[in-house]
Amino acid sequence: MSEQRLKTSIAILGCGEVGATLAYTLLQNPICSEVILVDPKKELLDAQVRDLGDATYGGRAATKIRAGTHQEAGQADVVVITAGAKQKPGESRLSLLSRNLHILSSIFTSMSPISPHTILLLVANPVDILTYFARKLSGLPESQVLGTGTSLDSARLRGVLAQKAEVSPSSIDAYVLGEHGDSQFVAWSNASIGSTPLRLALSAKLSDEFKADIESHTRGAAGAIIAAKGCTAYGIGNVAASICKYILFDSRTVRPLSFYQPELGCCLSMPAVIGRKGILRAMPIQLDEDEQKLLEDCAEGLRAVIEGAEKELKADDELRHALEKHA
Ligand SMILES: NC(=O)c1ccc[n+]([C@@H]2O[C@H](COP(=O)([O-])OP(=O)(O)OC[C@H]3O[C@@H](n4cnc5c(N)ncnc54)[C@H](O)[C@@H]3O)[C@@H](O)[C@H]2O)c1
User: Fold this and answer.
1) Does the keyword Oxidoreductase apply (predicted)?
2) Closest residue by CA, ligand 1 atom 12
């Protein structure tokens, strides 16, 4: 057995705010032999590896951290893609598309040939669109390409509902579904506290106004944090580390994640069972009529963006061929 196969490794592409926070979370809660960081900014990469390495000398460090190349990353058990531009205050996630799609496309060229067993976890935004294209560009089976999607929004939802109901967040079962972006929606019809439906558990409190307040809190959380500190990192670092754990431990945990929805023609978040092979299966959810409409509208918006992005990639290809011919 090769040296590499004896290790479990997680490669993180992009060691900016999110990548470094994820790496730190993985070092504090070890689940693999090594974390490999990759970033074209060499000085930043070296500094992050040294700084994070300093956090591993305390005696309980089981995970090593090192810098690596895209090629090495392509052989890791899990590759987390945080590489790309982030939103400026007030900017939407979709506005990052053109820049981050080009970065994504160059990443797959540099990682090739990617191991057929690798699981890809997309974090960079707009995460649903990038997950869709990662699936195409990587050549990996659909089940091995997933995006963090609305798992962070759902964690925020659990947090705010837990405060209102005065229970632990772990007792809340409620999902934000659809796009990790403006068209996301809360699946209120399925929400529960323990096994008690939310409408019984919160009864009088659960007005339309209450729901609208919570939805706007969940949808606007990232924007408010970015406006104040320029990025969000701890929440997504924690969520991404948990997903890596579900994968490597084959834990078969159910979470809303972004993955390909054949009947909707795009990637968006729906509940899924997560394990060593990625998305093991979709977990069916019965939405009410209004939620079903929101899901379809959300998919329609994402499909329109995908169509535009496909044209852009095709035009890039044509330009590259023309330049090669001319040279
Ligand atoms: N999905 C979510 O819930 C969520 C939450 C927070 C942030 N994000 C997204 O994560 C991304 C990263 O955010 P950040 O705050 O860490 O940004 P950042 O600017 O701090 O870091 C991005 C890093 O990616 C690197 N990079 C660029 N091209 C690369 C390549 N080809 N290979 C490897 N690395 C490359 C850059 O050099 C930079 O260091 C953004 O797109 C942001 O919107 C997503």
Assistant:
1) yes
2) 82
Active-site choice (70, 102, 180, 326)? 180
Q: Which helix (H) or strand (E) is 122 found in, with range?
A: strand 119-122
- DSSP H helical segments within 230-288, as ranges? 234-248
pLDDT in tens, 2-61: 565 678 999 999 999 999 999 999 999 999 999 999 999 999 999 999 999 999 887 667
Q: For residues 185 and 34, what is the distance between their CA atoms, to the nearest angstrom?
A: 37
Peptide bond before 113: cis, by omega within 30 degrees of 0? yes
Residues 6+ apart with CB under 8 A from 151: 239, 243, 255, 256, 257, 269
| N-terminal to C-terminal alpha carbon distance within the chain | 45
Task: Say how far apart CA 295 and CA 256 lie, in whole Å.
Answer: 14
Look at the block and give the residue holding tokens 């091995």: 144
| Neighbouring C-alpha atoms within 13 Å toward the C-beta of 113 | 3
Q: How far is the CA of 178 from the centre of ligand 1 (A)?
A: 22
What predicted TM-score, i.e. pTM, was given to this entire model? Answer: 0.95
Matching residue, tokens 């390409």: 145
